[in-house]
Structure formats: C-alpha cells, structure tokens
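# nightly structure sweep
# worker-07 picked up a monomer target from the shared queue
# config: single-sequence mode, recycle default, output format = structure tokens
# input follows
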Amino acid sequence: MELNILIVFLIIIVGTSIKAFNDAGFMEKWMFIPYLVNHEKQYYRIASHMAIHADWMHLIFNAMSLYFLGNAFLTFPMNVYVGIDGGLMAYYGPLMGQIHFGILFIVGGLFAALIPFVRHKDNPGYRSLGASGAVSAVIFAAIMWNPEMRLSLFFIPIAIPAYIFGPLYLLFEFYMDKRGGSRIAHDAHIGGAIFGILYVLFINIDKGKEFLNVFFG
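# output follows
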C-alpha cells in the first residue's frame, strides 16, 4: 500500500480515536463544543474533533467511507462511461493532487463545523465529534468529479449512479436535520457536502458542467 495523504489522514484518525476510546478526558478535551469555542476561545476544537470518534462503529464507517471514496477520488481512474478520467493525482500530478485532497478534507471539515457552531455557540450541552463532515466533503467532491460512478450504502447494497445518490442523500440529510432527535450532526454532513461541491467547481468548473449534463441528460 503506497503512502499518500489519505493514508496519513487514516493513520491519524484511527490512532487518536483509539486513544479517545480508552481515555474519557482526552475525548472530552478534543470534542467540538461550540460553547467553549465561543466563550472560552478554545478554537482548536473546531479541528480536533475530526480526529476522534465516539465508538468503533462510528470510526469504521467513517474510515471505510474515506478509504474507498477517497482512494478512488485521489488516485484511481474513475469514469469508465465517457472516457478514462483519473483522480486528482492523475489529473493534477502527485503533488498538487494531494494538496487539493488535503485542502478538501481539512478545510471541508472546518467548513462543516460552521452550521453547528452558529446553532449551538450558546448551548453548553452540545457536543459532537468525528470526521463525518470532512468525509462528506470528499464524497460529494467525488460525486461532482465523476457523477456516473456507482455508489451504495452498507444498509442499501444496490449500487446507484452518483448523480442520483448525491441528491437523494442530501434530501435525506435535510429531512433528518429538520426532524431532529437523531443525535447525529446532519447539519455538519450538509456543510461538508456543500464545501465538496463548491471546491470541485472552484478547481475545475468543467466538472460542474459535466454533472449537469449527466443529471439532465
């Protein structure tokens, strides 16, 4: 397995999460608590929460999603329907490809924290953790990059085209966020998705045109 920025991210996430599983004080210190960010200026929490997870299932789901979608988006040829189109490293080269991926994951995760921060900056009881917002940024960037690849969820084994999966997933997240009560930061997933879409449009506007052509084609 070749070492790249994705593998580095995974090593950090898995290592710090395992540490958090066995050290409640460490987990509490690294959680995203908007109240403490706003009132105690603990700004590091906006980033640190991405490196820890609540339990093994939470970690495995995010790590597997990041590995499979991130690996394809970063390195492998993806578009087998309208011509071979490699991932970021094939398109921009090894250095710039990994830089773009790093920005997407890190800044995407920070961006994903904006909505929860605005909503809960005066709520001392709110806490969240995990890389789900950053993973959402990667997933939706991959969807924009190659809308015709096929995706599936663990509990829905049937693969569907990404250009259908993406809108359906966003509708589900908006619905669950509005309904509330799930103990999942759906607003962070939405924020990450928005960043992933916007970042791909920023670095390659043609990918947006391709997506629209596929979606309405």
